[in-house]
């Protein structure tokens, strides 16, 4: 079953970048966008405008900005930890370089990895490679298993470049400052459907 992405981001430019990067990485999961933490929780609870799950399906992936007005990304993480702990929800935190020290706290609240803004096409290819069960690849049906194999092995589709060494989800990648360096994958764009109060 294809997993829906819920992008929680209050900056229009960042939304555009994320969508563009996902498109160029051939990520085909449907994308819904909400502009703050309060909207995100309403969507996840299926309240108000988001009450019809046939129109606003429960997401399997959250792309969550840490710094937002009103309810913050950390508060959304805390809410998810309390009420959605039993669900297989893949949470990717979006942060700037100066927010990296918040990432370990985000991991403690259930985030699986993080992206440093602005992210690139290669970052989403890396996500699909390291966590393949969550991501749908647009070209896989047309080109057969070869594209999925290229992406999961780390090469740019259609290229002959040497792929990077695979990251290990649980290895200690700290730089001596106590900050975990789990797979860092920046953002830039994606495609999909947008709910009523969301922005394209």
Describe the protein's topology.
Layout: E1 5-8, H1 12-24, E2 31-34, H2 37-45, E3 61-65, H3 73-83, E4 90-95, H4 103-108, E5 113-116, H5 121-130, H6 140-143, H7 145-152
Helix pairs in contact: 1-5, 2-3
Q: What is the gist of this entry?
A:
With 200 residues, the protein is an alpha/beta fold.
Walkthrough of the structure:
It is a single chain. The two termini are 25 Å apart. The protein has helices at residues 12-24, 37-45, 73-83, 103-108, 121-130, 140-143, 145-152, and strands at 5-8, 31-34, 61-65, 90-95, 113-116. Strand 4 (90-95), helix 4 (103-108) and strand 5 (113-116) form a beta-alpha-beta unit. It is of the alpha/beta class and 200 residues long. A 5-stranded parallel beta sheet has the order 2-1-3-4-5. It is built from 7 helices and 5 strands. It is globular, with a radius of gyration of 16 Å. The chain has a domain at 5-139: Response regulator (Rossmann fold, 3-Layer(aba) Sandwich), CATH 3.40.50. Residues 155-200 have low confidence and may be disordered.
Please outline the major beta sheet. 5 strands, parallel
Structural class: alpha/beta
CATH architecture of the domain at 5-139: 3-Layer(aba) Sandwich
What is the CATH topology classification name of the domain at 5-139?
Rossmann fold
Count of β-strands:
5
Principal-axes geometry comes out as globular
Radius of gyration, Cα only, in angstroms? 16 Å
Uncertain parts: 155-200
Beta fraction: 5-15%
Order of helices and strands: EHEHEHEHEHHH
Q: Would you state the CATH class of the domain at 5-139?
A: Alpha Beta
Determine the CATH superfamily of the domain at 5-139: Response regulator
Q: Number of helical segments? A: 7
Task: Please give the alpha-carbon distance between the first and last residues.
Answer: 25 Å
Query: Helicity, in percent?
Result: 25-40%
What does the average pLDDT come to? 77
As laid out across the biggest beta sheet, the strand order is 2-1-3-4-5
